[in-house]
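Friendly challenge for the regulars: who can give me the structure tokens for this chain first? No prize, just bragging rights.
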Amino acid sequence: MTVSVTYQCTPSEPANIEVYVAQARGTQLVEGFGFLFSICSSFTQTSQILVQSRSGSPYHPGLAVATASDFDGGDFTGPVEVRLVR
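First reply, four minutes later:
Bragging rights claimed.
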């Protein structure tokens, strides 16, 4: 699954972002991580981050919970409820 992340940070500094998505599927939890390694600019940036299920089961359309954080100990967003669509 691809997650759209919007961020702004200090120009020429690294943008090291981690996204975590979890979705309940019956008694199972489908969860996974995605990562972005980029360089910041002076503008707000939006990137697509691939989040792959690490549990072996795919994500399905419906509700899930997502968080995003800066590897360097900076900002943290979430958890937020999201709706997955095809």
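Residues 28 and 57 are 9 Å apart (CA to CA). The chain is about 0% helix and 65% strand. Your move, everyone else.
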